[in-house]
Amino acid sequence: MTGPIPEAPLSRIVIVGGGSAGWMTAAALARLVAAGLAITLVESDEIGTIGVGEATIPPLVDFNAALGIDENAFVAATQGTFKLGIEFRDWGHPGNRYVHPFGNYGRQTQGINFHQIWLRQRLLGVAETDPGPFDLYAISIAAAARGRFTKPAGDPEGVLQGLAYAYHFDAGLYAEFLRMRAEAQGVRRVEGKVVRVEQSSDTGFLSAVVLEGGRRIEGDLFIDCSGFRALLIGETLGVPYRSWRHWLPCDRAVAVPSAAVAPPVPYTRSTADKAGWRWRIPLQHRVGNGHVYSSAHLEDEAAARALLDRLDGAPLAEPRTLRFTAGRREKLWEKNCIAIGLSAGFIEPLESTSIHLIQSGIVRLMASFPDRNFAAVEIAEYNRWLIDEYENVRDFIVLHYHASTRSDSDFWNDCRAMDIPDSLAARLDLWRGKGRVFRGFNALFTEESWTAVLLGQGVMPADSDPLVAMLPVDETTRFLTHMRNIIAQTAEAMPRHEEYIARHCAAAGTTS
Q1: Residues 432-483 pLDDT 10s
Q2: Hey, which residues are catalytic here?
Q3: Which of 9, 18, 57, 102 could make an S-S bridge to 22, C-beta 3.0–4.6 Å?
Q4: Contact 334, 204 (CB under 8 A)
């Protein structure tokens, strides 16, 4: 009779690939070195990393804190700035502008979601009770619009508790920062190219990677951070890639850094273009710029020219073009191999989710950490959890395209007319009735996030929650006026973003 091997802990983990994915994984696992686990990261300086994603979302604040990272040291080391949300320009239609903020809008009243209170007042259609733009009710938007930043602190019931933040940073510098920490804690880095992957003839499990020159590195668990190549999960284990091109037709990105010509603003900017969109991410020492587009609707040369013509400052390098297909692996954990980062899947960085999906893979790995038995039920649960998160993010990104009323190009006409995932269609039907939105299982984006994009792009419900009708109109009018005023006053009292950086976390040799 055979069964699980008792007391079969892992002794060797091999991470193939560096960059943000590899070094975030190594830094998170580094604490296990003290428990006798050998962790080896294999990367080649010749291959390099993608490293265009420089904007993040608030969960990274918790990830860094869990690693014991000093925030000010991290921001300084990565030439970072703070991020309160994303400004969307021209997405609903040319001239449209809204902000998807981090944190909350207003506050609940008698258990009723704030957006329902705003919505009822708006639907009344009476000038005296009109609540004004929804953006006025988020402290993160108010601060971003004024170029101000501080951390939420003080009175737990105060308006600042509605603020949340993330970072802009140089992804290459972040990887270097984590590498120093991980190596100091005992992670071993091996320089070299993997030329062959060995598997057990009995089980098909990975057993070793072989580098140029013949060096073998054996492992019990392998983490594939090899990027789009997916050397382990794809090339070796043959896990198929599921394309989402039907819903997300953009398949190119051209990126270029430019000189900073003004103090960094505390938000990312996304501007819709005729065949995709452009990003602008301010760091302390430069600005990151990119153009994500569909090659079926725009030539590479024209895409690069459209980006260069709209830079605020002089370009600091030649534009670099990347090719990708939005989608995910059918499994992210197969046998004794886990894909993290681009090897697992890719969703365009419209909502700055790339680094977060790396983080999610790491957090779930720690929650499902295996022994050498590699229990099938645990692997299945890992895959279910991560796949669900990828698909939730996918639906949120598709919403931006599908909800647009732009008709100035074939690209936007195609996006507006396309079939959408059933899961997204159900959300939209629910919203269009009484403005209801529910976060759902394992969903990254909050009800506030969905509300920000739906209202921002002009998708108005037909009605509001019937519970709001029980609140007297004059009382809700006074409540909304108070919220607008206190949010504006609080934002005005914050320090300027560049002043906060100069005081707490300026990079060496940088003046803010």
Answers
A1: 999 999 987 788 999 999 999 999 999 999 999 999 999 999 999 999 999 9
A2: 83
A3: 18
A4: no
Residue 132 vs residues 122, 137, 138, 477, 503: alpha-carbon distances, Å:
8, 9, 13, 11, 35
276 and 293 Cβ atoms separated by less than 8 Å: yes
DSSP calls for 129-152 = G----GGGGBHHHHHHHTTB----
Q: In whole angstroms, give the CA distance from residue 242 to residue 405.
A: 28
Residue 333 and residue 319: Cα distance in Å, rounded?
35
Q: Measured between alpha carbons, how far is 512 from 500 in angstroms, rounded to an integer?
A: 9
> Residue type for 268, please?
T
Q: How far apart, in whole angstroms, are the C-alpha atoms of residue 455 and residue 375?
A: 45
Burial pattern 236-259, b for ≥16 Cβ within 10 A else e, equals: bbebebeebeebbbbbbbbbbbbe
What contacts 394, CB < 8 A, 6 or more positions away?
244, 247, 248, 326, 347, 421
Pair of tokens at residue 253: 């990105």
Residues 6+ apart with CB under 8 A from 474: none
Model confidence over 3-42: pLDDT tens digits?
555 568 999 999 999 999 999 999 999 989 988 999 999 9
Distances (CA, A) of 90 to 97, 341, 355, 408: 6, 30, 26, 11
Per residue in 259-273, pLDDT tens?
Answer: 999 999 999 999 999
The residue count for the chain: 512
Q: Structure pTM? A: 0.95
Pick left, alpha or beta for residue 56 (phi over 0 → left; psi -120 to 50 → alpha; otherwise beta).
beta
Could you give the CA distance from residue 54 to residue 175 in angstroms, rounded to a whole number? 12
Beta carbons within 8 Å of 63's beta carbon, 6+ residues apart: 24, 28, 359, 362, 363
Tokens read off for 321 = 């073009």
Tell me the β-bridge partners of 83.
166
Residue 187 near residue 217 (C-beta atoms within 8 A)? no
